[in-house]
Amino acid sequence: MIQNTRIQYLNNAEIQQGEYVLYWMQASQRTEYNHALEYAVERANRLDQPLLVYFGITDSFPGANERHYGFMLEGLQEVQSSLRQRGIAMIARQISPEIGVVQLASNASLVVVDRGYLRILKKWRQFAASHIACPLIQVESDVIVPVETASPKEEYAAATFRPKIKRQLQDYLVPLEMRTIVKARTDLAEACLFFDRIDLEDIEGTLARLNIDRSVGRLKCWQGGASAAKGLLDRFIATKLEHYGERRNDPSLEYVSSLSPYLHFGQISPLYMALRVQESNIRASVDAYLEELIVRRELSINFVHYNLRYDEFTALPEWARQTLYTHRVDCREFNYGLSELENGLTDDPFFNAAQTELRKRGIIHGYMRMYWGKKILEWSPSPEEAFQIALYLNDKYALDGRDPNGYTGVAWCFGKHDRPWGERAIFGKVRYMNAAGLRRKFNAMAYVQKVEEL
After folding, report:
1. Rounded distance, CA 107 to CA 103, Å?
2. What's the confidence (pLDDT) of residue 283?
3. What is the pLDDT of residue 282?
4. pTM
5. CATH code for position 162
6. Rounded CA gap, 318 and 322, in Å?
């Protein structure tokens, strides 16, 4: 089912007499549980035309490096193969995505695009909408509940957002049917001879031709793509979900799903994940997991969508900015520079382990990410500088950085979506964390040892 609230016309153009329907894939990099793709198939069938899927790869995406591009290309390679099996052609081009779609739209009857929430993704869609002669239709597929339907404004916290989105869930937690393309044309991409194409079968060659930051290399511990994501989800449900409710906040254990990189690149659908998890009868763990997957994740998207300064210190609530400003001159026991923080060379073994996990695995356990961010705030010359350092490190190393969850996770460490606490030095009324608290909650040294073995 594709709800009307997922569909938005981005311009007022009329359908053209084109050669194909074009799906501009950008955020939802998958062929299963992709509302935008299924909507495009439906429109192509209605027009009795083939469907062409386009993906534009810019080698200047903010903050992205070889680690991110490699993971993404692995997923796109699988997308192309899966589309081919469905009788749908795909063309990937090394070009700024909005420019490439305008060029391909010259021969399209209409264009469908998925939805993104970052400024650059919105800018691309706005440019394309004003430069193509046919309709540009956006279909939202990377949330359970469409962002404006969940809430018409930026929410203060999970407590205000939770009841709003929960009221909508019964209408959106429904399976999505995969449609069959009537006019199959797997050779359609080859027919576009006047456009340069990227060979997704040759990932190493494609990476080599991209002019990208190579300071952070690919990770052997991850394999991009929907198949890997679904396998990880299956193993999580079979072996970890039962105890997720009580063990998810223990970083020394492995009871999280670790699917955030796949969600980041749209390689797996949150709707598919939610429906699969709901099949379990372990109510407490299911509720706890859906709280993270739906309420917390879509609260992050709410923040980034409605607050255009999501990656700036000014995006924090006024109380947090004020209290941190008041305490900006407080004496700090330790002062560490960017190099020391980046390489985990502080006197705190727990921060060092979290930063090492980020560098070596491309993710940090959520609980340790909070501690990591709090320590950067405690050790930096100013809260504004701490905020930018945390964003820089997260965006540089995290496979799930540079997205709503990443920006919100950093902002939370500085008071976003939280409340004022007891006042103390440096932090003011922003929530404080220390090593003693880690030791009380779990075997913190076991976490350090686990990271040392990476």
Report:
1. 8
2. 84
3. 87
4. 0.97
5. 1.25.40.80
6. 6
